[in-house]
Amino acid sequence: MKPKPPPKGLSTRANRCLSTSGILAEKEVVLHALKTGALYPYFRPALYGKKTHQEVCRWAGLDESFVSPTIPKNTTPLAIDNGLSYRANRLLLRAGIQADKPAVLRALQTGVLRPGICPVNYGKQTHAELCRWAGVDEHDLARCRNKLNARENP
């Protein structure tokens, strides 16, 4: 059995990067995203690196070394002085969660932030950092979430 060619002529990884950033796999749309900075290697979206960028540029008919002239202006600076690491701030930015304690606490309590589940690249270490920063014991948080689940599903 022959393997199926990737849809639209792009690899699975490139298609995943485009779909997670909300960009249709159409050449005109991708060209616009590359020129406006919506696709920027090592910055936006997550897991969009050098090799994927080269593949997408080749597919769109651009030089492989093409890089958007500017990083998008609507991007908040990642070097926020709030006491969190660069990794935690970037994770919150990608997840669409404000980098303030009430918003992070709400996301932790509701299960929007769960290590190993969502968002992508959110592991035990970053979870522990966010729990410490928000003033929550991560073990109590898991117990509270289990109680909530038990009430919802009797």
Number of strands: 0
The count of helical stretches stands at 7
- Which structural class do the helices and strands define? mainly alpha
What is the helix/strand order? HHHHHHH
> Percentage of helical residues?
40-55%
The portion of residues forming beta strands comes to under 5%
Residue stretches low in confidence (pLDDT < 50, at least 5 long) are none
Q: Tell the overall outline.
A: elongated
Q: What is the straight-line distance between the termini?
A: 47 Å
Mean pLDDT: 78
Main sheet overview: none
Domain count: the total is 2
Whole-angstrom Rg: 19 Å
Protein architecture, described:
The protein is mainly alpha-helical and 154 residues long. The chain folds into two domains: 7-60; 86-152, no CATH class. The chain contains seven helices and no strands. The protein has helices at 12-20, 27-36, 50-60, 86-95, 101-110, 124-134, 138-152. α2 crosses α3 and α5 (101-110) packs across α6. It is elongated and about 55 Å long. It starts with 11 loop residues before the first helix and ends with a helix. The model has no long low-confidence stretch (mean pLDDT 78).
Topology diagram in text:
Elements (H helix, E strand, L loop, with lengths): L11 H9 L6 H10 L13 H11 L25 H10 L5 H10 L13 H11 L3 H15 L2
Helix pairs in contact: 2-3, 5-6
Name the features.
154 residues, mainly alpha, 7 helices, elongated
